[in-house]
Design brief:
46% of the residues lie in helices and 22% in strands. A five-stranded mixed beta sheet has the order 1-2-3-4-5, sandwiched between helices.
């Protein structure tokens, strides 16, 4: 058996900062029962920010059920306020696997990197009801984008079926 490094202790660093109209919670390290309190501190800071939220988990190398629970509770707190949360995590990483295996990936807007997550969060309606510069509703833009993705996926699937049926 390989002895644990640093007597089995894990580390997690969480930084909260504002990027434009988005509150970014940037987590680095491992999220487990011994470090989840640090994540809670960051998530509480994001609750106070009152803006769209992105939780960047790209630099998280491990996340157990304590981390999943923290994210689910945080998501519900934001939903209760009429807000949402967007996650960033590497598609083939440990966090993505934990979300997928637990079935919670469908509850979050999950994006492959921070830039994509921030862009998605920016088009969400802010909790203050602000609209975009041109007066259109960000919520409407987000809904339109989601509809376009679904339609595009349907068109692509139909094209693939057509190509496969050709002799």
């Amino acid at each position: 058996m390989v002895p644990p490094v640093d007597k089995g202790r894990t580390e997690l660093m969480v930084r909260v900062r504002q990027i434009g109209h988005v509150c970014l919670v940037d987590a680095r390290g491992e999220i487990d029962a011994s470090t989840v309190a640090e994540l809670h501190v960051g998530l509480d800071g994001a609750l106070r920010a009152r803006t769209a939220v992105v939780v960047d988990l790209c630099a998280v190398s491990f996340m157990d059920s304590a981390g999943l629970h923290a994210l689910l509770v945080f998501r519900q707190q934001l939903l209760d306020e009429g807000r949402g949360v967007v996650l960033a995590c590497w598609p083939d990483g440990a966090v993505s696997m934990a979300l997928s295996v637990s079935g919670t990936d469908t509850l979050f807007g999950v994006h492959p990197d921070r830039d994509a997550a921030v862009a998605a969060a920016e088009i969400m309606l802010s909790p203050t009801g602000e609209s975009s510069d041109d007066g259109s509703s960000p919520t409407g833009a987000y809904a339109a984008l989601q509809l376009a993705r679904k339609v595009g996926a349907g068109v692509l699937a139909a094209a693939v079926r057509t190509l496969r049926s050709k002799p």
